[in-house]
Amino acid sequence: MGIASGLVLYAVLWFLTFLVVLPIRLKTQGDIGEIVRGTHAGAPHEPQLPKRALITTGIAAVLWVIAAYVILSGTLTVRDLDWFERMGPRP
Predict the structure, then answer these.
(1) What are 36-86's pLDDT values in tens digits?
(2) Which helix (H) or strand (E) holds 53?
(3) Beta-bridge partner residues of 14
(4) Any residues with CB less than 8 A from the CB of 87 and at least 6 apart, and which?
(5) SS3 74
(6) In whole angstroms, how far apart are CA 79 and each of 11, 83, 84, 87?
């Protein structure tokens, strides 16, 4: 795995993790009862984006280390995922 592919893998993991972390413990304006004029009741009351970005960075780093280890060690290869043997017989 090269530097560019490692960075792309981390970016994908970061954004996927961020989308999972965003709704955790979210309090909407409708829940609080203080709806700002011109916004939807489902808009977040306090988004806490810096805190959520930090949590996401930590979780994504752990997931990246695990994925990089699996890729670099050869524990799991593309041939292992070839359940229908479309790549031909194994050498």
Answers:
(1) 899 898 888 888 899 999 999 999 999 999 999 998 998 888 888 888 888
(2) helix 49-73
(3) none
(4) 78, 79
(5) coil
(6) 25, 8, 10, 7
For residue 18, count other CB atoms closer than 10 A to its CB. 17
Q: How far is the C-alpha of 37 from the C-alpha of 51, rounded, in Å?
A: 26
What's the rounded Cα separation, in Å, for the pair 63 and 65?
Answer: 6
- Which position has the token pair 């409708």? 30
Q: pTM of this prediction? A: 0.78
Angstrom CA distances, 27 to 23, 33, 40, 60, stand at: 9, 10, 13, 24
